[in-house]
Specification:
Largest sheet: 3 strands, antiparallel
Strand content: 15-25%
Shape: rod-shaped
Number of helices: 4
Strand order of the largest sheet: 2-1-6
Distance between the termini: 45 Å
Order of helices and strands: HHHEEEEEEH
Helix content: 40-55%
Length: 145
């Protein structure tokens, strides 16, 4: 993303100098308005293009897109499994929800509106994204407590 910030800054300086030269050389107002409009359009196109490129071609962009998708649509279809220290399944949750993590716990509200806060000291927590069609199958495959 840094490269795009540099490109936008350089383009702004170049177009700013171009506009300055037009103002000082007595160019008509119509040409000046066109130049300003073109400059604004090109800067916006560079910013939008940079964000588009970043979101499709970098892993952090793909993660940010997935986070935004989760925030805007009420969550992602997930399967959460909680295991104790010996590796035995304690609990399993499935549904469409958003997950928040902290250094001490995982927090989410299930589809019934119940809040679940699972501390890492419990054992191992595995959160998998699944297709929505797979949710009932995923619950029936494992032990449900």
């Amino acid at each position: 993303m840094t490269i795009w910030a540099i490109v936008v800054c350089v383009a702004t300086v170049v177009f700013g100098y171009y506009l300055y030269m037009q103002f000082t050389n007595g160019v008509s107002q119509r040409a000046t308005r066109f130049s300003i409009g073109l400059t604004i359009f090109l800067i916006c196109a560079a910013i939008i293009g940079g964000i588009y490129w970043w979101s499709l071609n970098t892993e952090s962009g793909k993660r940010a897109y997935k986070d935004q998708q989760s925030n805007m649509s009420g969550g992602i279809s997930r399967l959460v499994r909680v295991y104790d220290m010996e590796g035995d399944l304690i609990e399993e949750y499935a549904g469409t929800f958003d997950v928040e993590t902290d250094e001490h716990y995982v927090l989410f509200d299930d589809e019934k509106g119940k809040r679940h806060m699972i501390y890492y000291t419990t054992g191992t927590i595995i959160i998998d994204e699944v297709e929505e069609e797979e949710l009932p199958v995923a619950i029936s495959e494992g032990d449900q407590h």
